[in-house]
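S2.1 Query sequence (SAM-dependent methyltransferase)
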Amino acid sequence: MRDDRDRWLTAQYAGAEDPWSYDSRWYEQRKRALTLAALPRRTYRYAFEPGCSIGALTELLAERCDRLLACDLVPAAVERARQRVAGRPGVTVREWDARDVWPDSGFDLVVVSEVLYYLDVVEAYAFCSRLAHHLAPDGQVVAVHWRRPADPHVLDGDRADRLIRATPGLHLLARWEDPDFVLSVLGRDPRSVAELEGLT
Ligand SMILES: C[S@@+](CC[C@H](N)C(=O)[O-])C[C@H]1O[C@@H](n2cnc3c(N)ncnc32)[C@H](O)[C@@H]1O
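Output structure tokens follow.
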């Protein structure tokens, strides 16, 4: 544990099985549905989900990926996510800090959902630079960020979204914005789904 942010996050999992009510809140269910609907490809070879929490999105992503690596800083979250996806082939859940070197490379999908704003601006830039290095040549990124104030967010959601959108070599493919959250889909290849399917 490095600092107060880590202690705060660890305390959330000590105090509740599902600290953000992922399983019961319609807000969370809808956000996950929009995230999955925004994925430009039907399936992915190898996806990475940093900050996976208890695995609510992980288990849905697993349906669309041959292999999926899901990580979280907090051991209790990793344990709960592991139990949730137990028996699913191709899914690995492990402890990892988004401020560290990346656990693997060659991801054709990285899902950064409600995690970037726990990093400060220097850490977030380092994260985006590693993202660019570890993404496959045809890689895509989905970034989702809550736009309202929250503890212990260091960056606000719009700033986190702007920062990840500025990652060199990534093009904006799609975007959702409402008063609560912003979702950006980025890809190395700027072509749309219809362009790739020859519809245009
Ligand atoms: C608000 S939850 C988001 C969960 C999930 N991605 C979603 O959108 O439904 C944020 C998660 O990010 C994790 N997290 C925060 N900072 C992290 C870091 N530096 N490295 C890895 N995980 C981190 C927290 O422990 C927490 O489980």
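The chain has one domain: 4-196. The domain at 4-196 is CATH 3.40.50.150 (Rossmann fold).
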